[in-house]
Amino acid sequence: MANTLKFGNGQWASKEGSVLAYNDENNNFKPLPFDFTRASGATRVNKDGLIEVVGSDEPRIDFSNDANGALLLEPSRTNYCTLSEDIDTWTSIEVTTEKNFLSPDGTLNAVKITDNSENSSHRVLIATTTPSSGDFTYSVFLKKGTMTNAALNVFSGATEGRAFIDLENVTISTEIGLNSKIENYGNDWYRCSISGTFGISSTNIYLYMGNNTAPYVGNGDFLYMFGAQLEQGSYATSYIPTSGASVTRVADSASQTPVSGIIGQTEGSVYVEVNISNTTSKTILALDSGSASNFIILDTTSSLSPKILVRQSSGSFPAIITGTTMSYGVNKIAFCYKSGDYAMYVNGVLSGTSTSTTFPSGIISKISVGANSSYGYLSDTVNDVKLYNTRLSNSELAALTTI
């Protein structure tokens, strides 16, 4: 089994502009640096479980879902909520706000929101301006106090998204909108989000106290809030801090053009362990010629089905294999390629084969993890990648991918 490249699996070495993979073929251990680019800062969850900002072109080894860390790769997104942490300056209606409480980034940036004794809807809100209509997602970090219920609401000419949150039982339910989600960030902090389709560009985002948006008689109950984000897309990406203006995080890219022999030119096999968090179609890994002429791409559909795309020179490139539907969380995928002999395994099970496709005759010289500029970005984390320059047996592919 000629393992020509290893990437991840808890062994991460990164610096600005680079993250290492390894080659230990023939017991000769050599570093293989991937070029990494992102022309902006971005956030990750560090080993201590805290959100932290990293600089431009610095790979994000994220520890939010795995103690071994995973490479976080995302498309470009903009936070249109211009005061993401200064929630104490938002419009307050029948509540008081106080900033100086421990937040998920380890600083005293969280805001305590307390209801008053009025029979009213108790809420905070901020007006935002987005560039167009379309799918947007509003997210915020919440922590229970004496109040354990809240509601997210997005108003853009009409209510476009609304979700009810129970911080005691850790549940969220979508009343209006596309979907909602609640994620554990430790220390009783949860990131809650609601997605909807907005009709106009002027949008108010709200946090209501209580188990819905209806009036109630307040009693001095409180909860904590941090890190509000409004972004274009049908799911929430990593937190983008703002302090008076919208901020854009540029897309991540990790790729390498290795020396001869690393990528098999007539046959080979690829293994990827990826943590799936949303249903957006995405590129997990691409082997290509540095252009759109010759490539093999491992992609997914919006229904979480992995697929293999092969293109030679020009023309169409229908999926030659569309595999078994994956689940949210960690999935292990392996596929082999050889003219007339393709196979894909997902989580230990044969997911599809193809005997009718030839292998591209042009040189395959580049490997890209989590992104391909022509076919989209991953929006998830990659735990492990292995590359082999031979066609592994089906039993070896099954063993690699067994959960």
Structural descriptors:
single chain, 403 residues, mainly beta, Jelly Rolls, 2 domains, nine-stranded antiparallel sheet, eight-stranded antiparallel sheet, 1 helix, 37 strands
> Mean pLDDT, as a whole number?
90
Given the helix and strand composition, which structural class is it? mainly beta
Low-confidence stretches: none
Spatial arrangement of strands, main beta sheet: 2-3-4-25-34-27-28-29-30
Distance between the termini: 20 Å
Beta fraction: over 45%
Total helical segments: 1
Rg, Å, rounded: 23 Å
Briefly, what is this?
The protein is mainly β. The protein has one helix spanning 394-401; strands at 3-8, 14-15, 18-23, 30-37, 42-45, 51-54, 61-62, 70-73, 77-79, 91-93, 95-101, 110-115, 119-120, 123-129, 134-144, 149-155, 159-166, 171-176, 179-184, 189-198, 202-209, 216-217, 222-232, 247-249, 253-256, 267-276, 282-288, 295-300, 306-311, 319-322, 329-338, 342-346, 349-354, 366-369, 371-372, 376-377, 380-388. The two termini are 20 Å apart.
Task: Describe the overall structure.
The protein is mostly beta strands and 403 residues long. The chain has one helix spanning 394-401, and strands at residues 3-8, 14-15, 18-23, 30-37, 42-45, 51-54, 61-62, 70-73, 77-79, 91-93, 95-101, 110-115, 119-120, 123-129, 134-144, 149-155, 159-166, 171-176, 179-184, 189-198, 202-209, 216-217, 222-232, 247-249, 253-256, 267-276, 282-288, 295-300, 306-311, 319-322, 329-338, 342-346, 349-354, 366-369, 371-372, 376-377, 380-388. The chain contains one helix and 37 strands. Strands 2-3-4-25-34-27-28-29-30 form a nine-stranded antiparallel beta sheet, with no helix packed on it. The longest helix has 8 residues, at 394-401.
